[in-house]
Design goal:
The chain is an all-alpha fold and 117 residues long. The protein has a domain of 73 residues: Up-down Bundle (Four Helix Bundle (Hemerythrin (Met), subunit A)), CATH 1.20.120. The chain contains six helices and no strands. Helix 2 runs antiparallel to helix 3. Bound molecules: flavin-adenine dinucleotide (FAD). Flavin-adenine dinucleotide binds next to helix 1, helix 3 and helix 4.
Length: 117
C-alpha cells in the first residue's frame, strides 16, 4: 500500500511537470489550431491518466473549469489554478501562482535559435 502511494505521487509529480512546462511553452499568441490542440491534449490527458481515482476527480475539475487555451499566460494561470484545486483536496499547501512565470523553464532552446544552432 505504501509502495502504491509512492508510485502514485511520483506519477503525479512527473505529470504536473510535463503539464506546467507545456503551458509555459505554449505560444503567446496561439493559432486557433494550436488552441484546439491544447484543449484536446488536456482532455485526453485526463481521460488516459493512469491513476483512475485521480482521473475521475480531475474530470470533474475540467467540467467545472475548462482548459484556458487563448494564450500562454491564460494556460499557465489555469494550470496553476487547477493544480491548486488538487492540492487542496489532498491537504497540500496552496502554490503561489504569481511565481509560475519562472518556475517551469525547461531549458529548451527557442525554436528560432534551434534553426541557427
Ligand atoms: P505535486 O502536487 O506533484 O507538485 C509538484 C511540484 O509542483 C511542487 O513541488 C511544486 O513545486 C509545484 N506546484 C505545486 N502546486 C503547483 C501549482 N498549483 N501550480 C504549479 N506548480 C505547482 N494524487 C492522489 O493521491 N489523489 C488524486 O486524486 C490525485 N489526482 C491527481 C490529478 C492529476 C491531474 C494529477 C496530475 C495528479 C494527481 N494526484 C493525485 C497526484 C498529486 O497531485 C501529487 O502529484 C502527488 O501527491 C505528489 O505531490 P507533491 O507534494 O510531491 O507535489
Amino acid at each position: 500500500k505504501l509502495g502504491n502511494a509512492t508510485a502514485k505521487a511520483e506519477l503525479g509529480r512527473a505529470a504536473w511537470k510535463v503539464l506546467h512546462t507545456t503551458f509555459a511553452r505554449f505560444p503567446v499568441k496561439p493559432t486557433k489550431d494550436e488552441s484546439e490542440a491544447l484543449r484536446q491534449y488536456v482532455h485526453l490527458f485526463q481521460r488516459l491518466y493512469p491513476c483512475g481515482e485521480c482521473a475521475e476527480h480531475f474530470g470533474k475539475v475540467l467540467a467545472k473549469y475548462p482548459p484556458q487555451v487563448s494564450s500562454r499566460s491564460a494556460a499557465a494561470t489555469w494550470g496553476c489554478y487547477v493544480h491548486n484545486i488538487v492540492n487542496k483536496r489532498l491537504h497540500k499547501p496552496e502554490y503561489d501562482c504569481e511565481q509560475i512565470g519562472d518556475a517551469y523553464d525547461c531549458g529548451c532552446a527557442d525554436d528560432e535559435k534551434q534553426d541557427s544552432a
